[in-house]
Design a protein that fits this description.
Blueprint lengths: L10 E7 L3 E8 L5 E8 L21 E2 L1 H19 L6 E8 L4 E4 L20 E2 L7 H13 L17 H11 L1 H6 L2 E4 H10 L4 E2 H6 L11 H7 L6 H5 L3 E2 L4 E4 L2 H7 L6 E3 L2 E2 H8 L7 E6 L3 E7 L10 E4 L7 E7 L3 H11 L7 H9 L9 E3 L17 E3 L7 H25 L6 E5 L6 H11 L3 E4 L4 H13 L6 H8 L2 E6 L3 H22 L5 H19 L9
Helix pairs in contact: 1-9, 2-3, 10-15, 11-13, 12-13, 13-14, 14-17, 15-16
Family: Belongs to the ribulokinase family.
Enzyme class: transferase
Keywords: Arabinose catabolism, ATP-binding, Carbohydrate metabolism, Kinase, Nucleotide-binding, Transferase
Length: 560
């Protein structure tokens, strides 16, 4: 295993920052045993309707409070160490992962702009969460100009930059609140910001710099490109740029302040930041090429290593060392998966069947195609392959005989079809996908997992940890602390996966082939210009909401 002797007596902490909470996990270096965990819910959660001070937000906004991230260190880390029953003095390193692209503007010393009193009521001063989609018009302009100028980097991102990424969000700040933009001396991923809080040193990780910051072959987009977007946007790279370090490297040492927050020893190794999906490849023993990891929760991120570089249409990007050093890391994703199922249970399922367990039980009794439905999985827009967050969901085939379990199963299947689209795009571009490792909270739904195996026609392996990202962060912390020479060795020693838990059934797979063909036809028609009704409806909705907000229009009352 190439680990350091005596590693059984040493421990690392992994901290996984999710959309609604942060989780800390204490892991034994010697064998990856998970000894204690704790969760801290964000006090402000996702800020989507109004700032804590009361200022209302437009549609498609999603912000967060950076103090919630510090509180995870203050509460979850000590609680996890206590639950593990280990001596904090035996902890040798800490690593973190984060949602992405989740970014915030700060002063030069890392102070978030939303924590300066005069900017606290300015929405653009707050953290922009990954699912902040209000920058779609700015992303559209970036993409159009990149193709007009034949920018060499655009092909590495499947031909489109996402509204979720750094440049679209930064351009939105500049054009909607130039004072906040000018005050922002740094514009930094939350992953790198929290590492800065831990070790007092500003660093940038190659993962987010490559996938979300358009860093390719050592270069960001040129100043000429940025000023062509907006004459005042030319300094954006200066706000993004910082000391760039590979994954698994040591960003610095835990400061006295952070040691007081966490209860961990001052001076231990702090690993370079990482993304929740990408870091999971290590815990899933999937750093070798050809094994795709799908981290399935509220959304899904798909990551796979390849031996060669290729341009894959509609992907989130390909980055040298973006998942692990020595390979080209590919990323794709679906903006809504578990969120879609949760929406149906919470808002559409009638009493008596308004639970995932009951709907899954009813849906599992159906034959493939028995509900007569096809759904498009765009309830939170489309990340891959279409890279358009103004797209919306659809269900085709409903009749008076349609029942809630029919719709629920169709929604499950729609996300599997979306994953198959992504896999086929990889394979068509020459990036092998031999099998899948599934991680995240949705692995406990056996019906969903079997649907994915049947639809994709590939075996599904299941990560053996319920905390894949946190374990992955702990693995990277072990490397940063010098316990292993590389992520590959640490992954083999500390990662775990159950092999081929779900296998495709030939008969069901053939039935799904026919349904997938219908999904693909709808996908291309509504997503590739056959009918832009979804985009027009989004524009009508936004205009109506903005007009109502501007005039303080009261909702209509229904008179019996």
């Amino acid at each position: 295993m190439n680990r350091v002797d005596g590693a059984d007596d040493r421990y690392v902490v992994g901290v996984d920052y999710g959309t609604l909470s942060g989780r800390a996990l204490v892991v034994r270096v010697g064998d990856g045993a998970e000894l204690g965990t704790a969760v801290h819910e964000y006090g402000d959660g996702v800020i989507s309707t109004a700032l804590p001070g009361g200022r209302t937000l437009p549609p498609d906004w999603a912000l967060q409070n950076p103090q919630d991230y510090r509180d995870v260190l203050r509460y979850a880390v000590p609680a996890a160490v206590s639950a593990a029953g280990v001596d904090p003095a035996a902890v040798v390193g800490i690593g973190i992962d984060f949602t992405a692209c989740t970014v915030l503007p700060t002063l030069a010393d890392g102070t978030p702009l939303c924590e300066t009193p005069e900017l606290r009521d300015r929405p653009h001063a707050w953290v922009k969460l990954w699912k902040h989609h209000a920058a779609q018009p700015h992303a559209d302009r970036i993409n159009a100009l990149a193709h007009e100028r034949a920018e060499p980097w655009i092909g590495r991102y499947g031909g489109k930059i996402s509204a979720e990424w750094q440049y679209a969000k930064g351009l939105q700040i500049l054009e909607e609140d130039p004072e906040v933009y000018d005050r922002a001396e740094r514009f930094i991923e939350a992953a790198d910001w929290i590492v800065w809080q831990l070790c007092g040193t500003e660093t940038r990780n190659v993962c987010t710099a490559g996938y979300k910051g358009i860093l390719q072959d050592g270069h960001y987009p040129s100043e000429g490109f940025l000023t062509a977007l907006n004459p005042n946007f030319g300094d954006f790279v200066a706000k993004l740029d910082g000391p760039l370090l590979p994954l698994g490297a040591r960003a610095g040492s835990l400061t006295a302040q952070a040691a007081a927050w966490t209860g961990l020893p001052e001076g231990i190794a702090v690993a370079v930041g990482n993304v929740d999906a990408h870091v999971t490849a290590a815990s899933a023993q999937a750093v070798q090429p050809g094994r795709l990891v799908a981290i399935m929760g509220t959304s899904t991120c798909h990551v796979v290593n390849g031996a060669e570089v290729a341009e894959v249409a509609g992907m989130c990007g390909v980055v040298d060392g973006g998942i692990s050093p020595g390979a080209w890391g590919y990323e794709a994703g679906q903006s809504g998966v578990g969120d879609i199922f949760g929406w149906f249970v919470e808002h559409a399922a009638p009493a008596g069947v308004d639970s995932h367990e009951r709907l899954t039980e009813l849906a599992a009794s159906q034959p493939v195609g028995g509900h007569g439905l096809i759904a498009l999985d765009w309830w939170n827009g489309n990340r891959s392959l279409l890279v358009n967050h103004d797209l919306s969901g659809m269900i085709v085939g409903m009749t008076l005989a349609t029942r809630p379990a029919d719709i629920y199963r169709a929604l499950l299947e729609s996300t599997a079809y979306g994953t198959r689209m992504i896999i086929e795009a990889f394979v068509d571009a020459g990036v092998p996908v031999n099998d899948l490792v599934i991680a995240g909270g949705l692995t406990n739904n056996a019906l969903l997992m079997q649907i994915y195996a049947d639809v994709t026609r590939r075996p599904l392996n299941i990560i053996a940890s319920a905390q894949g990202p946190a374990l992955g962060s702990a693995i990277h912390a072990a490397v940063a602390a010098g316990e292993f020479p590389s992520i590959h060795e640490a992954s083999q020693a500390m990662g775990r996966v159950h092999e081929a838990v779900y296998r495709p059934d030939p008969e069901r797979a053939r039935a799904y082939d026919a349904l997938y063909a219908e999904y693909r036809a709808l996908h291309d028609h509504f997503g590739r210009g056959g009918n832009d009704v979804m985009l027009r409806l989004r524009a009508i909705r936004n205009a109506a909401v903005e007009t109502a907000a501007a005039t303080h229009e009261a909702p209509l009352e229904v008179v019996a």
